[in-house]
Inverse folding.
């Protein structure tokens, strides 16, 4: 119970997290199955981001695609990553799984330009 009190400010308002963000990038986060609290937080932020006001003009702005960047060289590692992030709407996502390099920066630039 003590830990829940300590983090109550963090969790308060999580239901709306990501709703009015116009840009979201997740870089190098594996979303480990053992980290269920963070998994819940990221799930909520990403689904809010990708579903709320998607495609709508809000004060002259539109949401950019979600950008996922990680290093997953093998097919098995890519499959594991896709399983962890199975809740992501791939149609509204730019994904780059070759590590954080110049091409990853181009993926971010493409999201900004979209």
């Amino acid at each position: 119970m003590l830990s829940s009190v300590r983090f109550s400010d963090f969790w308060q308002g999580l239901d709306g997290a990501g709703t009015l963000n116009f840009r979201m990038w997740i870089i190098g986060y594996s979303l480990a199955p053992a980290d269920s609290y963070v998994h819940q937080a990221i799930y909520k932020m990403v689904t809010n981001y990708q579903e709320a006001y998607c495609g709508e003009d809000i004060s002259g702005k539109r949401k950019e695609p979600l950008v996922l960047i990680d290093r997953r060289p093998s097919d098995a590692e890519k499959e594991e990553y896709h399983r962890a992030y199975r809740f992501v709407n791939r149609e509204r996502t730019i994904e780059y799984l070759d590590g954080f390099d110049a091409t990853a920066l181009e993926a971010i630039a493409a999201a900004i330009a979209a």
Notes: The mean pLDDT is 86.
